[in-house]
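Input sequence (239 aa), recorded before submission:
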Amino acid sequence: MIKLDILAFGAHPDDVELGCSATLAKEISLGKKVGIIDLTRGELGTRGTAEIRDKEAEAAAKILNVSVRENLNFRDGFFINDEKHELEIIRVIRKYQPEIVLCNAIDDRHIDHPKGSKLVSDACFLSGLQKIETSLDNTIQLPWRPKQVYHYIQWKNIEPDFAVDVTGFMDIKMKAILAYSSQFYDPNSDEPETPITSKNFLDSVKYRAQDLGRLIGTDFAEGFTVERCLAVNSLEDLM
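Predicted structure, token format:
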């Protein structure tokens, strides 16, 4: 079992790449162990297939150099926040014991994003309860509750509670996103257009990061929302 510092969840393969992969790349460069958990295989996506998305997710994981990537194979579009799905996520949280969990936006255009956000957040709390029993490989797991749960920003321009300076890591982020060649801008594709297949959408990933960077005085940044009050040891901790 690999203990992770950060575990990032996405309702679909490419959610993590779009939302927070520059932050993950930065943390990995600092020696942190990072993993990604995809809730579904994105099988309802207009373009491509689940099998193609599997290969794209694997390629993106290699680009980011994450320690682990798993897919829970929940039903795209139809998973719900219930005991069965929560227990699956609790098993993963207890397996990797992350200090920090990153998950989908709390409010977004795609219905799976807020669903996935609340599901993962609830499972993080429940994972710390001793009387919820789970096992892995016939071994009873110990309770584990991450210290922090943060939500990355997706389609909607939600105002972040804090932003991470990711200057120097946007190239890795864009390479990881473009690993999903079936999903994004391709002028030669004859598949149907979707809200994320335009060149404007792909460009927006970079100009949003530039705008957040402008707000905090850096070149690029990724934004997150929080579930509880942020704390710092001193005023000097703030950039």
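Checked by second reader. DSSP finds six helices and nine strands in the chain.
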